[in-house]
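Z., the sequence and structure:
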Amino acid sequence: MTLPFDLGFAGAAYMAVAVLVAAFVRGYSGFGFSALVISASALVMNPLQIVPVVLVCEFLMTFQQWAQVRRDVDWARVRALILGAVIGLPAGLWVINRVSVDAARGVIAGYVLVMCVVLMLGWRIRSRQGGLAHLGMGVLAGAANAVGMAGLPVASYFTAQGMAAGAFRATLIAYFCILDAITAPLMWWHGMVTWDTAWGVVLSLPLIGAGIWAGGRHFLATDPQDFRRMAIGLLGFLAVLGLGKALW
């Protein structure tokens, strides 16, 4: 059987485990799927190839979780973030499609490391944030979604404001759904979507379904904050490995 993206059996097995673990993290916490899969992919392939796969999968995952979260979505935040993303996303795609594979690995790894530090340090915003602040974060996150990484800055931003867990998870999920629906056609226009993308999505969906189901049911008896720290630590570890591969 021909595997997508010229992966060998070992590389495909590694990516299957990465997708399953990332889906569990997404089901439990509402974020982290894209960052984990893309960071993991940088060790065995061009990470830009997996970005459209991840975005399509993120979009499809929303349908599995929508019934659980729709009542808790903060739509005012979502609208402002999406408006900002419409500004930031085209610029991010223009840049990332003009760099080498190793440069892309380095950019992704460095960005992930910075976001992990921000999340681990527990950055806090004391004042109430309005539409302009949400718009600015949307621009940043939209640019970051050129490499499928919009979730980390938005998760950091929501965490800093002390959002309730239910609203945090639901608002992220709704935001991802709309943002990814906008991003996928633009990636196709840039030539980032191929038949391997469709094949990668098909192979990933059963793993994602299992991971989301297990994460959503709190399959592990772990405190949410401890689990979040563990996920961020894993993400930082993958980013360090990716940075090493980019440099050496």
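Residues 116 and 233 are 8 Å apart (CA to CA). Residues 165-189 form the longest helix (25 residues).

Let me know what you think.
H.
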